[in-house]
# Entry
Amino acid sequence: MPAVLTVDPRSGVPIYLQIIEQVKRSVALGVLQAGEQLPTVKQLALDLTVNPNTVARAYRELERDSVIETSPGRGSFVRGNGVATSARAAASDVARDVLNAALREVKSVGLTRGDVRELVDAALDRWFPEEQ
# Structure
């Protein structure tokens, strides 16, 4: 697996969710290709210095979300059929998570729904000017 996964135990985001997000992002960006094998649960747990149960939980969730498939005795692989659809869904999942975190932050500093809408509209105009 060419992608290097990292976790930050101090981020406040559960480690298994960090692993899920990074794998989904890697699939969405094409860093992980269909059929590519992921590290074993044990190997990834050693690499990240986390409990193997944490990695196993992340892999189970990724399998449930149809991002990976696990074959007993062979390992876990990026799903081959429907990878474009899975990649699109994975990109949406990653974007949703990032957007939810950002909205949680702006709400915590006391911005109103209208304030947030203005900020989002300005950001959309900046990043997607051709779609106006």
In short: Residues 15-131 form a domain with the Arc Repressor Mutant, subunit A fold (CATH 1.10.10.10). DSSP finds five helices and two strands in the chain. The radius of gyration is 17 Å.
